[in-house]
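Subject: design request, 203 residues
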């Protein structure tokens, strides 16, 4: 049996964004070690993390913390009904809208604009938005949220990881990947200090 990472993200969390990007970047390497990745949906720390993960720093929107029930229901529906790449591209755009453009995705008209930008047809958008407000759409997100809470989640990103021996443990935060790799038995290079004169390597 290979290992598995189940990831729980929330779109108002910049650290979910950093972790989501990091897992996408390393998905093929993890797969080569038999690890499957299953994704669900403080100023100085944010700036440092953005630099470390090689992404442009973001700023909290004036409506922070945003209400994310609608965008999370939409993401849950898209994840269940579209190819993985479509879900990933759409979910990444959530952070662009909220943390770079400061557009509130709790407003249906803004959610629709995002879906149009991702080239969903008008018919698809109508189906997605109706599904997000349907009893089934609401229950789907409730079930995933309950699953995370039952596993002890208290924030995002939250990871539930199973190694090749079948042992399972939780991990929290975008700065716990080295612990995850150790638990999974994945070889990695740890952070180390370079000798003076050999400091060309950059994060």
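Subject: RE: design request

Done. Sequence follows.
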């Amino acid at each position: 049996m290979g290992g598995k990472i189940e990831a729980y993200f929330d779109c108002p969390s910049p650290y979910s964004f950093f972790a989501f990007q990091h897992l996408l970047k390393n998905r093929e390497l993890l797969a080569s070690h038999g690890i499957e990745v299953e994704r669900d949906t403080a100023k100085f720390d944010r700036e440092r993390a953005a630099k470390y993960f090689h992404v442009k720093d973001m700023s909290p929107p004036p409506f922070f913390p945003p209400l994310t029930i609608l965008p999370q229901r939409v993401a849950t529906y898209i994840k269940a009904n579209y190819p993985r790449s479509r879900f990933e591209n759409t979910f990444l755009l959530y952070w662009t809208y909220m943390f770079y453009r400061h557009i509130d995705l709790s407003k249906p008209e803004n959610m629709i604009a995002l879906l149009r930008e991702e080239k969903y047809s008008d018919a698809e958008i109508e189906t997605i938005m109706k599904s997000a407000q349907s009893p089934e759409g609401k229950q789907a997100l409730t079930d995933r949220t309950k699953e995370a809470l039952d596993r002890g989640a208290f924030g995002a990103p939250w990871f539930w990881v199973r190694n090749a021996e079948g042992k399972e443990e939780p991990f929290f935060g975008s700065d716990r990947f080295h612990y995850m790799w150790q638990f999974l038995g994945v070889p990695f290079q740890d952070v180390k200090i370079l000798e003076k004169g050999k400091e060309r390597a950059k994060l």
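The chain has a mean pLDDT of 82.
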